[in-house]
């Protein structure tokens, strides 16, 4: 009996003029920049002296890859002194409940409290209005939002000596533009943005982001959802029109706004960052989604 060792085909949505640049290695290199979720230390809580308590991820007890260093350390130093727990504010469906629950307690003696937000804006509002008392030690924003969080004093630098697992992070995901020295953050997840649809309603194959918008304004009108993050919706327009997602051309920004507000908005049913359950239940015909969905 033989085994097929042919690498699996990798398909993703990207601007047409970008396809020649897409290799498996290139995709891994660009991944965190495209849609990275970074663990950062929330500027909240404190020790008995009133100074901020440094925090780190602390909950990953999975086996490290060959040649890597197993995390170890004094976990008592990352526990919120006021609550006796390590509190994390993050996106839903990104953490194994067992891993951040009983396994964290059994393996490293860390009691974790995990709460979830629906958008980066919700996260920032929560931290900005808490007066430094949000109760969270760790927050997980999308990478490009980190600079404004630093500027607003919503997160603090962390002590990298308390994060031994950083040696296991692929260098491709370190030193991103939003935190080049990884003083405030380290990549936790990365992924791509795509879409899914009900093939009993939309019978044609959707391949490009222009296909997505066309279907949204026709077969899926009134039953289409998009992710509740502005950069991703702006990105979809860029990808549909062969524009640079990181571009700042005023004419492109105006054209995108006019298209989304005047033509697309009336067809959108809901801004939904977690559409997988709803589309399975028939609530949507077409949904913009992250690859994890």
Q: What does this molecule look like?
A:
The chain is built from eight helices and ten strands. It has 293 residues and is α/β, with parallel strands linked by helices. It has two domains: 33-62 and 70-190, Periplasmic binding protein-like II (D-Maltodextrin-Binding Protein, domain 2, 3-Layer(aba) Sandwich), CATH 3.40.190; 193-290, Periplasmic binding protein-like II (D-Maltodextrin-Binding Protein, domain 2, 3-Layer(aba) Sandwich), CATH 3.40.190. Strands 1, 2, 3, 4, 5 and 6 form a six-stranded mixed β-sheet that branches. It has a four-stranded mixed β-sheet with strand order 7-10-8-9, with helices on one face. The protein is globular. The model is unreliable at 1-35 and 44-77 (pLDDT under 50).
Secondary structure tally, helices: 8
User: What is the typical, i.e. mean, pLDDT?
Assistant: 77
- The low-confidence runs, each spanning 5 or more residues with pLDDT under 50, are 1-35, 44-77
Write the CATH fold name of the largest domain. Answer: D-Maltodextrin-Binding Protein, domain 2
**Total number of domains:** 2
Number of strands: 10
Full CATH superfamily name of the largest domain: Periplasmic binding protein-like II
Alpha-beta content class: alpha/beta
CATH class category name of the largest domain:
Alpha Beta
Strand content range: 15-25%
Task: Give a short summary of the structure.
This protein is α/β, with parallel strands linked by helices and 293 residues long. The chain is 25% helix and 16% strand. The longest helix has 15 residues, at 250-264.
